């Protein structure tokens, strides 16, 4: 089975995280912005590049959160996940997504996440206070 190696940005702003809605022929649902890691690029570099390409934003401080391994029917996904703040004065603009939504902890499961993101989102809800504690970013 083919492996797709991507990175994603879990973007935090004022106690909320950014969810992005994808609607294309293969995948329809909510996800975190990100994409394929290009040759010679680190997962973090890919994450920052994808945020610029998909949302027209620069990201501020951040840290590695988790690696997700997920088997879709026709490929295996390895997803490196980072948590970032937005740089001051930045606000995401959808370029490849049909909708953006800021979610607080109680709303995390209110959207239909793509399958690879479900356990990641659940873990964030469980560890919310630890992940987003004052001064962590």
Automatic annotation (TrEMBL):
Pfam families hit by this protein: NUDIX
Documented EC number(s): 3.6.1.55
GO BP terms, alphabetized: DNA repair; DNA replication
SUPFAM superfamilies linked: Nudix
Top-level taxon of the source organism: Bacteria
UniProt keyword list: DNA damage, DNA repair, DNA replication, Hydrolase, Magnesium, Metal-binding, Mutator protein
Swiss-Prot/TrEMBL catalytic activity: 8-oxo-dGTP + H2O = 8-oxo-dGMP + diphosphate + H(+)
InterPro entries assigned: MutT-like, Nudix_hydrolase, NUDIX_hydrolase-like_dom_sf, NUDIX_hydrolase_dom
Top class in the EC scheme: hydrolase
GO molecular function, one term: metal ion binding
Cofactor(s) needed by this chain: Mg(2+)
Domain Nudix hydrolase: 1-127
PANTHER family tied to this protein: 8-OXO-DGTP DIPHOSPHATASE, NUDIX HYDROLASE FAMILY PROTEIN
Family in the record: Belongs to the Nudix hydrolase family.
Protein's name according to its UniProt entry: 8-oxo-dGTP diphosphatase
Organism: Atopobium deltae
């Amino acid at each position: 089975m083919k492996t797709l190696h991507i990175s994603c940005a879990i973007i935090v702003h004022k106690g909320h995280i950014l969810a992005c809605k994808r609607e294309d022929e293969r995948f329809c649902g909510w996800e975190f912005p990100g994409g394929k890691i290009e040759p010679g690029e680190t997962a973090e570099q890919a994450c920052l590049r994808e945020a610029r390409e998909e949302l027209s934003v620069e990201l501020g401080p951040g840290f590695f959160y988790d690696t997700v391994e997920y088997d879709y029917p026709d490929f295996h996904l390895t997803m490196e996940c980072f948590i970032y703040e937005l740089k001051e004065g930045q606000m995401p603009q959808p370029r490849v997504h049909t909708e953006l939504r800021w979610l607080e902890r109680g709303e995390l499961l209110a959207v239909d996440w793509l399958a690879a993101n479900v356990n990641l989102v659940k873990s964030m809800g469980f560890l919310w206070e630890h992940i987003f504690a004052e001064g962590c970013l």
